[in-house]
Amino acid sequence: MPLKPLERAKSRLAAAVGAARPELALAFAMDTVAGALACASVRNVVVVTDDARAASELSALGAGILADVAGGGLNAALAHGARAVRRDRPGAAVAAMNADLPALRPDELRQVLEAASAFPRAFLADAAGIGTTLLSAAPGTELLPAFGGASRDRHSASGAVEIPVAGVESVRRDVDTGADLRAAALLGLGPRTAARWAALAGPGRR
Fold first, then answer.
1. How many CB atoms lie within 10 A of CB 107?
2. What share of the chain is helix, strand, coil (3-state, %, to 5)?
């Protein structure tokens, strides 16, 4: 999972949540990591970040922390993470996943990863059908991440297979805007995000 420094993370969310944005970005990441670690198909989670506070909080949950590639951007960070995992476990399957899935359900992630295991490379489109929330690579296969913007088309063009799984909305529902956060809340937010959202929204929206 990639995570920007919290002061720069989730910039599009600022219009909806104001100064709470960094705290919500951290809560998203913590609930995503906790959900992934609770998934029966996940052996370990590595977060690529240079944010010291996020690294401390996520490490306490059980995630491995890897320093980002200076100036490399999102996809360089993901490729860096995949290489680091495979230095320790050369035969590992790897998956890159967004760190902003605060409604993530472990069993839905398990379904996605089990479906992905049938293909050398596979991806899951986001709820909008434009981007990507997860990309997997089987043992011996390069990840070749192309996240950002209209990544669904780029991953498909690169030869990755779109994962044919229904009923896994918590794995598709990344959060970039206030509308995304409200949609994730309807699915059921993880405890850290739920607490932040309740404090932000006030009693009338809890």
1. 14
2. 50, 15, 40
Total domains in the chain come to 1
Which long-range contacts link 141-149 to residues 24+ away (Cβ below 8 Å)? 142/82, 143/78, 143/79, 143/82, 143/94, 143/96, 144/79, 145/74, 145/75, 145/78, 145/79, 145/82, 145/96, 146/75, 147/74, 147/75, 147/78, 147/96, 147/98, 148/74, 148/75
pLDDT tens figures, 35-74 = 999 999 999 999 999 999 999 999 999 999 999 987 789 9
Q: At a CB cut-off of 8 Å and minimum separation 6, what does 119 contact? A: 136, 138, 160, 161
Which tokens in the block code for residue 90? 């050369």
Q: Residue 135 pairs with which residues in a beta bridge?
A: 96, 123
pTM value is 0.94
Q: Give the CA radius of gyration of the chain.
A: 16
DSSP bridge partners of 47: 65
CA distance 42 to 124: 16
Distances (CA, A) of 44 to 65, 117, 127, 191, 199: 11, 16, 25, 21, 31
Q: What one-letter code names the amino acid at 83?
A: R
pLDDT given at position 199: 86
What's the CATH code of the domain at 190? 3.90.550.10
Q: Residue 50's domain spans which residues?
A: 2-10+17-205
H or E segment at 124? strand 121-125
